[in-house]
């Protein structure tokens, strides 16, 4: 590589996204006091650009505008330019995205916002092309117009920015109204089910035509709805909608059939042509949903998808110290000599390439059949490529194929006169060959930033999969990652979580000079992960840490006046708004998950004020839950958990004894969404006995492992039969 012509102060940052821009001719600053002071001293506007390292349009805007010396000169002359990695600083991203969405009706990344020197936004958008076009004004023109406005109409701009901020404060407030109580669960569940049912795609699954997102929050809600209505037609439909969606996704091109794991979303109705980036938060949540699908259906198809996701994460997104990386990019160089990256280049195939890799004749198949024939038929490969040109606006996929399982194994086997078992082995052989061939291609960029929140989601994925599939190795991997968090993303002196750490030189783990403190989402997803890990491993240390973090979360984020948690803590003067997210998106909104965390925390600690807090969150969101519950499916699910009261399933027995293991296996293999699991092992000095004195009164019956189902610390009669226990676990 040639010596870079420019280097700006982003070279001193740790974020992979900021480092991608360290050699732009733009005089970038990271978000911080140095930039704010300079804007005030020089009385200049701030141009804020927010993105992330695996964002396709962020790359495009950098290539077209931020690498241009001419545009860089305009930016440097008129603005103080700040770059923010939205994954590092979701707080900054959220404040200004709220503004962009309110003023333009849309949002996305890269986000481009112009601020006054005191950080108030007055103009913004997303991607701008460099020059004016027929339908869009170009970035250069926008920069010059805004600079002119500041020169000519400074007072009007300042006044307008103040008005905008007041309006945003007013519209973004979520608080309890008067004496509100949690909304009625039956109505909220029913409305959410009807709204999802109406938007459901009967043919291909999912809840929109295109683009199609995995939306694990919808599927988890449908599983809960089924569990509470399993004898009704609506309950049966809820289950069918969720399982069909999961099947279609796993067969589609959004699922990487060669390299495992799931891409971000599908650009079409059929789950076929994806946007190719792979995010850690998707893998973590999908591992949980597919594990639940397996618990409910017993279908090994779903268990295989879980194993596939966890193989991908273990191999490609794992740091040797135990943490998980954030993402893999969509764009890469098609060959080692290519000058330009293309979206999906690492994952797509030309038909002739597949023929060359799979030329072997297939024994026992119809005359003249090759491995290539069988594989290409099964995965929908076409000679001219199988990508609809309307889903490929930049012609990056012309002549290429995105693999999609077009036929059932039975149909493909019948087509070529093969046994289904034989077909499975053949396809496996083909996939391994293609995997080796793909390993020769240049890999996409890997974002090696490690975030507490997303690591939490992935720990839940490994822990819940380990419990549901009875795979101890997955539970151990979850524990390794939790130990990583405690070492690298927790400050024992202050008792607080940190947001991020980074892979440094020689694969060491590095922290930035001033570590970013954890946000609400970091606490919520890590606490959830620790509860999941306790239930899978029965190591009480994880429980103890979860309860400590829950108390810290209450202290830092709780809104005593309006109820529910703020996304950020108080006291940062550079954040103009303290917001509460009100929509479950690619990740559930933290307040949604916090409700269930609080109820679990109360079950493990006996602190009933946590149940009260959970109710107050539901009260604060009551209006939204009753009007558009489809915006908060995870919170709707939590409403049901709150109303039905969590069952405490207590197993009295030696954790190493076969009879105890059998009971634990029974509890973990049944989908029972309204329970917490604990083992009373007779160690009266242990943490759980200290928290829950009632455990001391429970004993084994006839010396055998014995289960008790308790509600609000009042327990059922003892059960020693696994069959009886299974029946009692159904909601």
Describe this structure in words.
InterPro entries: 6-hairpin_glycosidase_sf, 6hp_glycosidase-like_sf, Ssp411, Ssp411-like_TRX, Thioredoxin-like_sf. This is SPT20 protein. The chain is an alpha+beta fold and 731 residues long. Helix content is 47%, strand content 10%.
Topology:
Blueprint: H1 16-20, E1 28-30, H2 33-42, E2 45-51, H3 56-66, H4 69-78, E3 79-85, H5 90-104, E4 111-115, E5 121-125, H6 139-152, H7 154-171, H8 185-199, H9 216-228, H10 233-251, E6 265-266, E7 274-275, E8 278-279, H11 280-297, H12 300-316, E9 327-328, E10 331-332, E11 342-343, H13 351-357, H14 371-378, H15 409-415, H16 420-438, E12 446-447, E13 449-451, H17 452-468, H18 472-488, E14 490-491, E15 496-497, E16 500-503, E17 509-510, H19 520-537, H20 540-557, H21 590-605, H22 609-620, H23 622-627, H24 633-644, E18 647-652, H25 658-669, E19 675-680, H26 687-691, E20 706-711, E21 714-715, H27 722-729
Parallel strand pairs: 1-3, 2-3, 18-19
Antiparallel strand pairs: 2-4, 4-5, 6-7, 8-9, 9-12, 10-11, 13-16, 14-15, 16-17, 18-20, 20-21
